[in-house]
Specification:
The complex is a heterodimer of chains A (51) and B (449). Helix content of chain A is 47%, strand content 12%. Chain A is of the alpha+beta class and 51 residues long. The longest helix of chain A is centred in the middle third of the chain and has 13 residues. Classes of the chains: A alpha+beta (51), B alpha+beta (449).
Chain lengths: 51, 449
């Protein structure tokens, strides 16, 4: 979350930043961020939090 | 006899076209590994998903597509045409393997499925091999294929931007402020996938087209929570509804069938109500772009054959090359009468988004790129035999049409190119007599080794 607040990232970059997190746990965590409704998108597809 | 997904895996195995990967693989590495295999891949151990296997790149070559269709590689178009011409209605059966395990309520959790991350700039993990069933009260059942991006354990995005019958169904539901129920079958025989990619008239049931290809009815079971039917032998089924929110939610990018990274799109959301699957399910990962493209080849080639016949030109062979993503390019050989090289080009360039068409005489093997180059070298005079048709309908996904210049909601145009590589009128066929080796049939190299 903090990383996305600082710099927009592609989903794959979020995944790369968490190499040791089990895939299912990562998807659940991503789902929580999604459900929180805080994600925005850059034109090139990167995710960001906030404006 | 109706064959299923596992029968096709067996056929691949029998042909030496299936590689088994036995070591555990993380879902984030599945697509990259499948891309490195010459064969189709069956991942037998998925890290964190002990009950699942994953199969991918099943029809990533023309050879494997022909294997799926039980015909020679050059016969995929006529084989597909025969299925369209002889539909067989689907049959409802009381139960099926796709419902051996049922998850409803909180148990319907998409994270329990090994949905892979496929490409560097994808907006999330994607379900790429979908067979999406929907129904409209007036028009009836529709079956199509639409990519789905994981969002939350109960939601995916779905790409519903392009015109389609299901887009129409969704729009009609949206106008009434109601959700559109859908069921998503994953892991079905390529015939069902081909039928889904065929733009059938709205009153044609794609399951009947698939039945025509099988030569037997597709067996369907009723879904558990939505008023729809799915193939009984599917590996996995997602039941739920498209929320009546319109095209409001970000989806993509995804590695498109053009081999190019796509854009973020605005699309509806699919909410899952129920997940059913086999006891030992195999998740089907349709490997972009070539597997997606080959599934389009019979459809576009059959359309090309039909266009030639309507133009009263006699086709001999047709090919949608993978370099044109089995979509933008058609190559055909014909039995030519004077002028018909050009007639054939006009016919082929009228098919969907085809922007490059090449026509040869019937003595050219269009499956041999060297022969095709030879014909284009020695049978073409550019000032007589090349057609350029400007201002035809284009497709956004082709960067060369500069879709952004059309503005939001605007439609791009494209130029179309036709090359008549048939023997020019006025040039005697004898001018093209090929060299033949003296005593070719009298001696054998093996006898001299």
């Amino acid at each position: 979350m903090e990383a996305l607040r600082a710099t927009p990232r592609h989903f794959a970059e979020v995944v790369e930043a968490h190499p040791d997190v089990a895939w299912r746990d990562l998807l659940k965590a991503w789902g929580e961020v999604r459900a929180a409704g805080v994600l925005g998108r850059e034109e090139d597809g990167r995710y960001r939090i906030g404006q | 006899m109706k064959r299923g997904f596992r029968d096709f895996l067996g056929a691949l195995e029998g042909a030496g076209e299936l590689k088994h990967v036995k070591k555990p693989v993380d879902p984030r590495h599945l697509s990259a590994l499948a891309a490195q295999a010459r064969e189709a891949t069956l991942f037998e151990s998925i890290a964190g998903y002990p009950d699942w296997r994953v199969a991918g790149a099943l029809v990533s070559t023309r050879k494997r597509l022909a294997l799926a269709m039980g015909c020679a590689e050059r016969d995929i178009a006529p084989r597909f045409e025969s299925g369209i011409r002889n539909p067989i209605d689907a049959r409802l059966v009381p139960d099926g393997a796709c419902q051996e395990v049922v998850w409803e309520g909180d148990g319907a959790d998409l994270t329990s499925i090994p949905i892979p991350l496929m490409h560097v700039k994808d907006g999330g993990p994607y379900i790429s091999a979908t067979l999406v069933v929907s129904r409209d009260p007036e028009y009836g059942r529709n079956v199509g294929s639409y990519r789905m991006m994981y969002r939350t354990p109960r939601e995916t995005g779905i790409d519903l931007v392009s015109p389609s019958d299901m887009r129409l169904y969704y729009q009609r539901a949206l106008d009434q402020k109601r959700p559109l129920e859908i069921a998503v079958a994953i892991g079905v025989h390529p015939y069902e996938m081909l039928a889904a990619s065929y733009k059938a008239p709205i009153d044609v049931d794609e399951f009947a087209v698939a039945g025509g290809l099988h030569g037997a009815p597709v067996e369907l079971v009723r879904c558990r929570t939505v008023d729809l039917e799915v193939p009984a032998d599917a590996e996995l089924v997602l039941e739920g509804e498209l929320l009546p929110i319109g095209w409001t939610t970000d989806e993509g990018p995804f590695g498109e069938f053009s081999h190019i990274t796509g854009d973020v799109k605005w699309n509806p959301v699919f909410r899952v109500k129920c997940i059913t699957h086999r006891r030992d399910p195999i998740f089907y990962m349709l490997q972009m772009p070539w597997e997606n493209d080959w599934l389009a080849a019979p459809v576009i080639e059959a359309a090309g054959l039909q266009a030639l016949r309507v133009a009263s030109v006699q086709p001999v062979a047709i090919r949608a090359p993978i370099g044109g993503c089995c979509y933008w390019t058609l190559v055909a050989s014909i039995k030519k009468r004077p002028g018909e090289g050009k007639n054939a080009l006009l016919a082929l360039l009228s098919v969907a988004e085809v922007k490059l068409a090449i026509v040869t005489d019937d003595d050219i093997n269009i499956y041999d790129p060297d022969e095709l180059d030879w014909a284009m070298t020695f049978r073409v005079q550019a000032d007589h035999d090349v057609l350029v048709i400007p201002g035809a309908r284009g497709k956004h996904i082709d960067p060369s049409v500069k879709a952004w210049a059309a503005g939001k909601g605007g439609l791009p145009t494209t130029a179309k190119l036709g090359i008549d590589a048939t023997i020019p009128e006025g040039v005697p066929r004898s001018q093209y007599e090929r060299i033949r080796y003296f005593a070719k049939d009298a001696v054998r190299l093996e006898d001299y080794l």
